[in-house]
Specification:
- This protein is mainly beta and 428 residues long.
- The protein has two domains: 1-36 and 201-428, no CATH class; 50-193, Sandwich (Jelly Rolls), CATH 2.60.120.
- It contains three helices and 29 strands.
- The strands form ten sheets. A five-stranded antiparallel sheet has the order 7-8-3-10-11, with no helix packed on it. It has a five-stranded antiparallel sheet with strand order 15-26-20-17-18. Strands 12-29-16 form a three-stranded antiparallel sheet, with no helix packed on it.
- The model is unreliable at 8-103 (pLDDT under 50).
- This is F5/8 type C domain-containing protein.
- InterPro entries: DUF1996, FA58C, Galactose-bd-like_sf.
- Pfam families: DUF1996 (PF09362).
């Protein structure tokens, strides 16, 4: 998340380009997803909800749990035959098998190297979660959140199923993440973000944003090259900026505000004329592409980029509306001036969000598509679940204060103004 120096949109100039001074990206891209309520409820952050895909290092990063068993199999189990069960008590989770796996099953996690964020004592080591002991051992972490457990499968492995069985004191929220190298992780399942997500399930939960206080949901459709899903590489950027000329009038998002930008059913012409359109699909020296280009230069430095701005004027009444759009509006030009202002129907100026995503794909692009169709169907959702004091501190210091901030709320050209957040991206 970055807070560029405020400035009006439209006549006064475009948003900062990638790599602009002061841009520190969110860690990888705030991928709490808002479910798409229009056409693709099955999608998840950075991808579609479904079976876990090939990855050597699955990791469970629970937000409200202790130490959790990781049963991984190469094929689904018959109904009503859970492989592992967990019982969460004050000391952690008891791990055991309800019944041994059948011979045809390959239990990937059993006996593999395992580490955890902490352990309650020597008798409750993380290895107990995968030792195959049905009744005699259990693992348990420290009595504080968050905690995590990680199993190293040692090599790229096709994972068909991960099953966790909790007792009534189950973890309220957790994430499953996978990695190809043990250092860069992507979320493939999150209990805090799904089609039934609410402000109660998001607020205070885990996040992949740099600021722990930002538990907001940011969602966009997956990108595919043929049948292969293309994931953005490294941290991605979501800008918070001023959409009106009077940047001192910008206020923080109200808790629970949600909206959709764009429309999965929009035509190519509607996408081009959308108020949030910036430069369309970009690759190499090609800009303003309405659809995904058929080809891009085959160079290591070339990626497929997309940018789109959100409406930043709120009606001050509704946190959401049936179409997920009517309560928000884009700024308008003040009569007789070159200034942008909020219309009378939507008088409250909020931060303007701008998605900036980059995908590592080039060369022949003829099979590149969004999960829901053509490139002009691009859209995204936002569901605000920031902790209020932190968001207000960042908006007041950076946007209202006229600074171009990084994720700490620090403007390197104005060091005397200090930072809004500390080294851990939290309020001092």
């Amino acid at each position: 998340m970055t807070f560029p120096r405020p400035g009006p949109e439209g006549p006064r100039g475009p948003a900062p380009e990638p790599g602009a001074r002061g841009r520190t990206p969110a860690t990888p891209p705030c991928d709490r997803a808002v479910p798409n309520r229009a056409a693709r409820r099955g999608h998840a952050p950075n991808g579609d909800r479904g079976p876990l895909e090939s990855a050597p290092h699955p990791a469970l990063r629970p937000a409200r749990s202790r130490c959790v068993p990781i049963p991984l199999t190469t094929r689904p189990d018959p109904p009503r035959r859970p492989l592992h069960a967990g019982s969460r008590r004050a000391g952690g989770v008891i791990a055991h098998l309800r019944r041994p796996p059948q011979a045809a099953d390959t239990l990937l996690s059993q006996g593999r190297p395992v580490t955890a964020s902490s352990q309650e004592g020597d008798a409750y080591a993380a290895s107990a979660a995968v030792d195959g002991n049905l009744t005699g051992t259990r693992c348990s972490s420290a009595h504080s959140d968050p905690q995590w457990i990680r199993v190293d499968l040692g090599a790229p492995t096709a994972i068909r199923k991960l099953q966790l069985v909790w007792d009534p004191a189950y973890a309220k929220s957790y994430e499953v993440q996978v990695s190809d190298d043990g250092s860069t992780w992507r979320t493939v399942h999150s209990t805090t973000t799904n089609a039934a997500s609410t402000i109660a399930s998001l607020y205070g939960g885990r996040t992949t944003c740099k600021a722990p206080a930002d538990a907001s949901a940011y969602w966009m459709p997956s990108l595919y090259n043929g049948d292969k899903k293309i994931f953005p590489v490294g941290p991605q950027v979501i800008y918070y900026k001023a959409g009106v000329t009077d940047y001192t009038s910008v206020r923080p998002f109200p808790k629970g505000l949600r909206f959709v930008v764009g429309d999965p059913m929009q035509s190519a012409d509607e996408f081009r004329r959308h108020r949030g359109f910036v430069e369309g699909w970009e690759c190499g020296d090609g800009y303003f592409n309405i659809d995904i280009p058929a080809s891009c230069p085959s160079r290591p430095d070339v990626q497929l980029d997309i940018r789109m701005r959100a409406p930043s004027c709120w009606d001050g009444k509704y946190l959401d509306t049936p179409d997920h759009r009517s309560h928000m509006a884009y700024p308008v030009v003040k009569p007789g001036t070159n200034d942008n202002m909020c219309p009378a129907s939507h008088p409250v100026a909020l931060p303007m969000i701008e998605f900036k995503m980059a995908f590592p794909v080039n060369g022949d692009m003829s099979q590149v598509r969004l999960a829901g169709g053509r490139g002009y169907s691009f859209h995204y959702d936002f569901f605000n679940a920031w902790e209020e004091r932190t968001l207000k501190a960042m908006v007041d210091h950076c946007i209202v204060g006229g600074l171009q901030c990084d994720a700490h709320g620090y403007d390197e050209t104005n060091p005397q103004r200090g930072a809004a957040l500390n080294a851990d991206y939290r309020l001092p």
